[in-house]
């Protein structure tokens, strides 16, 4: 294993490969030269706190090491979007990036070194500081401070878990961003210290991954990605990957079995958080498998049933209280839900996990999340993914009556305060980038106005994007279109095409100019539709169509201004 303290000045061969970008191989010589050049420019700009937001993992490594080289603090938002930077305030001097965002002030574009030779020296990992941000349980960005020394200790533990599985000459491929601790630890620091090249690109779609040579590679993916593997399978041209690594949320038994069979590779699940780093691990083999402590982590169970840990990945050696309830199991533990998920409704304490457990026992329910909504006089709300039987009942009874049936099943075991008054029936619980069900995403389902259809799935192939959408019956655009027979208006469909293309394809909203559209069939609330977007960059056009099965509902072309 390398030592980050001497990575920039050590005497190892400088032609060793640090990163890959497709066929491009980036060696240690260039890595050091890029760091030295950018460090000199940052020092000249007197940067003491650099907000690091890059799309490319290699440039993240360059920017981070350049900031550490000059003694600056690295500030990392949850993702590389401008909105994520704005959400955490302005506690930085410059935004360090690999792609400029318009004409915004305070941006520093990372660039290639000049080949003049590296003006570098050893760094002290204990003095290199990193501030990560996480949404936590409330959705508001929460700062978590770490040192480079703690990140190095975690990389050593990852090598202890994966070193015997992933060959020293293999490489690491990631579908999770390095802006999250999971991606930063497994996709950047672990390969960087262990001497394995990492793929600089962050893949979004399985089609992109499966088009590459992933033979004997370690694939770092989120539960959200693994659940969307679907019918896609490796083509058999290459050896299977060494392993798959997942973190962010527990995988179901069905998903875990599917991905292992599809790739013919073992699956390592990681349990932890931005605050704690890695806490638990399990090579997925059996149902209801317990978690084992990560190497070096000591665990204990507090009097309230919540997990406590001592960890080398924390800079504080004291016991740290984790807000998850657990029960002992063999040499490890099983998770029993969040310890802090108790709310007061009408003056009574209600355990949300207990309400969820009762609902989950219903034959109509496949998954459920219960939450409190309303700042004053809160009430309970439930988001339900129906089972096959539940889906039939939803079609037969409708959402209101099915909700009433589920309320009756709760009344036999719970007081009135613990019975949800508001219900949403969805095809899939909304999740964040790593597959976690987040409070803010659930709350958004109960906003007074739903202005966009629910995004169920997304697939991309080059400049083409397919989105599976569900038009809910409570869309604000349905108001007035038309009493007695609501339809989704055409202007809303055009607006959604432009906004979703901007959000997921990077086409600026302001570039949409004129459009031609043809309505083939009515688009109705309650419909699941597929939105197909194709960006013709040469002709500055965005083609779109809404489809239901083989039927085209709406199609059109949006002309774009040159950008």
UniProtKB/TrEMBL annotation:
Domain ApeI dehydratase-like: 459-555
Every AMP-dependent synthetase/ligase domain range: 130-290
Transmembrane segments: none
InterPro entries (UniProt xref): AMP-bd_C, AMP-bd_C_sf, AMP-dep_synth/lig_dom, ANL_N_sf, ApeI-like, HotDog_dom_sf
Highest taxon listed in the record's lineage: Bacteria
Residues covered by the AMP-binding enzyme C-terminal domain: 354-436
Family under the similarity heading: Belongs to the ATP-dependent AMP-binding enzyme family.
This protein's name: AMP-binding protein
Species annotation: Dongia rigui
């Amino acid at each position: 294993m390398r030592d980050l303290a001497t990575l920039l000045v050590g005497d190892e061969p400088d032609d060793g490969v640090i990163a890959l970008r497709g066929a491009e191989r980036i060696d240690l010589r260039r890595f050091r030269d890029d760091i030295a050049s950018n460090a000199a420019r940052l020092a000249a700009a007197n940067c003491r706190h650099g907000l690091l937001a890059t799309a490319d993992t290699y440039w993240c490594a360059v920017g981070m090491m350049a900031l550490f080289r000059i003694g600056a603090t690295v500030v990392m938002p949850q993702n590389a979007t401008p909105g994520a930077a704005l959400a955490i305030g302005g506690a930085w001097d410059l935004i360090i990036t690999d792609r400029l965002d318009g004409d915004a002030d305070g941006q520093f574009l990372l660039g290639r070194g000049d080949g003049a030779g590296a003006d570098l020296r050893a760094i002290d990992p204990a003095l290199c500081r990193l501030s990560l941000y996480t949404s936590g349980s409330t959705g508001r960005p929460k700062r978590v401070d770490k040192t480079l020394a703690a990140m190095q200790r975690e990389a050593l533990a990852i090598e202890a878990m994966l070193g015997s599985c992933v060959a020293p000459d293999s490489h690491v491929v990631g579908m999770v961003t390095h802006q999250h601790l999971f991606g930063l630890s497994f996709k950047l620091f672990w390969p960087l210290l262990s001497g394995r090249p990492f793929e600089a690109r962050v893949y979004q779609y399985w089609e992109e991954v499966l088009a590459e040579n992933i033979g004997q590679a370690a694939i770092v993916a989120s539960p959200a990605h693994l659940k969307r593997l679907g019918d896609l399978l490796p083509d058999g041209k290459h050896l299977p990957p060494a392993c798959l690594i997942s973190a962010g949320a527990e995988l179901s038994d069905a998903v875990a079995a599917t991905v292992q069979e599809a790739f013919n590779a073992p699956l390592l699940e990681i349990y932890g958080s931005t605050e704690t780093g890695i806490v638990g691990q399990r090579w997925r083999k059996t149902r209801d498998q317990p978690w084992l402590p990560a190497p070096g982590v000591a665990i204990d169970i507090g009097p309230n049933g919540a997990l406590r840990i001592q960890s080398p990945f924390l800079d504080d050696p004291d016991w740290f209280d984790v807000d998850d309830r657990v029960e002992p199991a063999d040499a490890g533990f099983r998770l029993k839900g969040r310890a802090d998920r108790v709310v007061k409704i009408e003056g009574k304490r209600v355990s949300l996990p207990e309400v969820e457990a009762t609902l989950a026992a219903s034959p109509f329910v496949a998954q459920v999340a219960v939450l409190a909504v309303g700042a004053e006089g809160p009430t309970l709300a439930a988001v339900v993914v129906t089972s096959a039987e539940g889906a039939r009942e939803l079609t037969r009874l409708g959402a209101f009556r099915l909700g009433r049936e589920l309320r009756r099943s709760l009344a036999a075991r719970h007081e009135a305060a613990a019975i949800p008054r508001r219900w949403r029936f969805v095809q899939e619980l909304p999740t964040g980038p790593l597959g976690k069900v987040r409070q803010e995403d659930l709350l958004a389902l109960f906003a007074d106005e739903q202005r966009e259809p629910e995004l169920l799935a997304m697939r991309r192939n080059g400049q083409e994007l397919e989105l599976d959408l569900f038009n809910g019956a409570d869309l604000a655009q349905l108001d007035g279109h038309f009493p007695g027979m609501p339809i989704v208006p055409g202007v809303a469909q055009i607006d959604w095409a432009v906004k979703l293309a901007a959000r997921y394809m990077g086409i600026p909203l302001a570039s949409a100019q004129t459009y031609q559209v043809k309505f083939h069939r009515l688009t109705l609330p309650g419909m699941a539709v597929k939105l197909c977007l194709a960006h013709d960059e040469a002709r500055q056009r965005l083609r779109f169509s809404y489809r239901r099965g083989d039927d085209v509902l709406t199609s059109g072309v949006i002309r774009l201004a040159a950008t």
